[in-house]
Amino acid sequence: MRIAVVGGGVMGGTLVEAMARAGHDDIVVVERSPERRAELEAQGRATAADVEAVAGADVVLLVVKPQDVATVLPVLASALDPEATVVSLAAGVRTATIEETLPDSVSVVRAMPNTPAVIGRGMFGVSPGSRVSDDRLDTVVDLLGSGGEVVVVDESRQDAVTAVSGSGPAYVFYLAEQMIEAGIDAGLDPEAARTLTVQTLLGSAELLAGSDDPPAELRRRVTSPNGTTHAAITTFDDRGVGEGIRAGVRAAAARSAELG
Ligand SMILES: NC(=O)C1=CN([C@@H]2O[C@H](COP(=O)(O)OP(=O)(O)OC[C@H]3O[C@@H](n4cnc5c(N)ncnc54)[C@H](O)[C@@H]3O)[C@@H](O)[C@H]2O)C=CC1
Ligand SMILES: O=C(O)[C@@H]1CCC=N1
Q1: Nearest Cα residue to atom 3 of ligand 2
Q2: Are both 190 and 246 inside the same structural domain?
Q3: Domain count, the chain
């Protein structure tokens, strides 16, 4: 299977690495920045400067910024193999918008990734456009599966997926920043604060992933009556931390809808 990746930035580079690790060896990265192309080539990737290089690809991953999609589409439309599948990873851009510009024979799929894909622990929410066969969708699910877990969702849910898992790693890193800073303030050296925080996040995520209990129940088991956890959670509630997080996720979903 020949794969072309248009946009070799943070997410494009991540996906290329994941697919290469999974054994895909016919990948070309279309990247307009000469500096970035040189970096990708140093990592052993085949690159091209012009979108025309998608000619002959079975699957094209579109991984440019949402505002750059409109400039790439007309070139894709003329260069693409008529039987190609285009997978857009651009936040907020609807499959209908892409389908309008591309030939009817081209299958269009939308996918929202996240950055843990760089270590094969990503989360992808995938939505087929209006003319995608089950076989084509399976191919895309398999391909993205090289970077982590894949769920298929109706496209109307993509703003919510973007807000929860697309942007989600940033929320976790934000929590990590606060915990590390607070640990240092409480007297830990920075390295110890980081180790304690990271292992706590890892262990808690794995405990949650392997449990049938909801997170609220796992939280209850940590919380002794009138103990330290109770003091922390009460303070979070008093300061509206939970509501703040939900408002943040809503703002991300609203911004995703706006970008579309
Ligand atoms: N970084 C993230 O965590 C996530 C990113 N995304 C989506 O992935 C897409 C890419 O994001 P990033 O990789 O973070 O951006 P980025 O800016 O790191 O990468 C985009 C790359 O595309 C290249 N590019 C732009 N126009 C081009 C053209 N016409 N031809 C060839 N190359 C071109 C740029 O030079 C750049 O290297 C965005 O649409 C974003 O919404 C989605 C979910 C998560
Ligand atoms: O912040 C953004 O717009 C992109 C989409 C999800 C993660 N990063």
Answers
A1: 91
A2: yes
A3: 2
Q: What is the mean pLDDT of the chain?
A: 96
Q: 139 and 193 share a domain? A: no
- The two three-digit tokens of residue 54, written as one number: 């998608």
DSSP state for residue 198 in the 8-state scheme: H
pLDDT confidence bin for 41, thresholds 50/70/90: very high
Dist. CA 45–CA 17, nearest whole Å: 9
Closest-approaching ligand to the CA atom of 11: 1
Does the beta carbon of 167 lie inside 6 Å of ligand 2? yes
For residue 85, what are the β-bridge partners?
A: 59, 107
Closest ligand 2 atom to residue 256 Cα is: 3
**Domain boundary, last residue among 127, 155, 183:** 155
Residue 188: which region, alpha, beta or left (left: phi > 0; alpha: psi -120 to 50)? beta
ipTM given for this complex? 0.95
**Ligand 2 geometric centre to CA of 163 (Å):** 8
- Together in a domain, 75 and 178: no
Q: How many CA atoms lie within 13 A of 200 on its CB side?
A: 14
Helix boundaries (H) for 22-68: 34-42
Ligand 1 atom 22, closest CA: 7
Check whether residue 151 and residue 176 sit in a common domain: no
Q: Averaged over 182-199, what is the pLDDT?
A: 98
Q: Domain check: are 85 and 195 in the same one? A: no
The pTM (predicted TM-score) of the whole model is 0.93
Distance CA 69, CA 99 (A): 12
Domain span at residue 240?
Answer: 168-259
